[in-house]
Specification:
By secondary structure, the protein is α/β, with parallel strands linked by helices. The chain has one domain: Rossmann fold (3-Layer(aba) Sandwich), CATH 3.40.50.150. Helices cover 30% and strands 25% of the residues.
Length: 263
């Protein structure tokens, strides 16, 4: 399979102050589209081989708890982190079951479908949401530009870290991406598991009439950076998502790897 050529770059990127969680949700999560289904499928498959952990981290959660649902199967506690306060606020509304929180029923139902329960009742899907809320014990700001994105005390402290469409969607510069993703990788404990989703080849992604930066990352970049950061047992999957071409990308890379232990 050939690597996609990065798409044309827009004349100007939008500023992060223009980010609107509701617009992002409307653009990518008004229904379960293939890239989301593929990511959740990858998570469920990858987590099946991961032993239970005391605490898992999802870094760069954005305003959506969709990929947090599967973590409830393996983690006693779940920590969520994002760079933008508006995303943290949106997540907190859902975690606290606020009346104006986004309803994610279609996605908790999709998780059941992927687990082989296509006719599961709504109550079963709501039970997944309830279990996830119960395990979320911290929603915080995190900054992948920092050597310690969550502070020095969190470095190497998580046995399970997930990150989806995060570092490569925060910059248009591939060298900066390497710094950002390496800083995220530093949160994984030796012997711990990393599961990630990467938008491949994109130099931007659209949210409504705005364009935000992307770093044009390829599957080869993903593997190289994992190896450079001491990860082993790397599993990789690439899925085409042609329905996203107008939004700036047409394939996604999914990876799972284990952080090497010090000799």
């Amino acid at each position: 399979m050939s690597t996609p050529t990065p798409t044309d770059t827009p004349e100007k990127y939008s500023d992060w102050s223009e980010w609107n969680p509701k617009d992002y949700i409307a653009e990518y999560y008004s229904e379960v589209i293939p890239d989301c289904r593929f990511a959740m499928e990858w998570l469920l498959e990858s987590l099946a081989d991961v032993p239970p952990v005391d605490c898992a981290l999802e870094f760069g959660t954005g305003p959506i708890p969709v990929f947090t649902f599967p973590l409830s199967l393996r983690a006693k506690e779940i920590h969520l982190a994002d760079y933008l306060q508006v995303n943290v606020d949106e997540l907190s509304k859902w975690a606290n079951n606020a009346p104006d929180a986004q309803d994610w029923l279609h996605f908790s139902q999709e998780m059941l479908h992927l687990q082989g329960h296509p006719l599961a009742p709504e109550a079963q899907a709501r039970a997944i949401e309830k279990a996830t809320r119960a395990r979320i014990t911290n929603i915080t700001l995190g900054d992948a530009k920092q050597t310690n994105p969550l502070g020095a005390d969190k470095r190497g402290s998580y046995d399970l870290v997930t990150t989806h469409c995060c570092a490569e969607s925060a910059t248009s510069n591939k060298d900066e991406w390497r710094v950002f993703i390496s800083n995220i990788f530093s949160l994984v404990a030796p012997g711990g598991t990393l599961i990630q989703t990467v938008v491949e080849g994109a130099t931007y992604y659209r949210v409504g009439n705005r364009a935000f930066p992307a770093a044009g990352i390829t599957r080869h970049d993903v593997i190289d950076c994992l190896v450079d950061n001491g990860f082993t047992d790397i599993d990789l999957r690439v899925r085409n998502t042609p329905g996203n071409s107008e939004q700036g990308f047409s394939s996604c890379v999914f990876a799972r790897a284990v952080k090497g232990t010090a000799s």
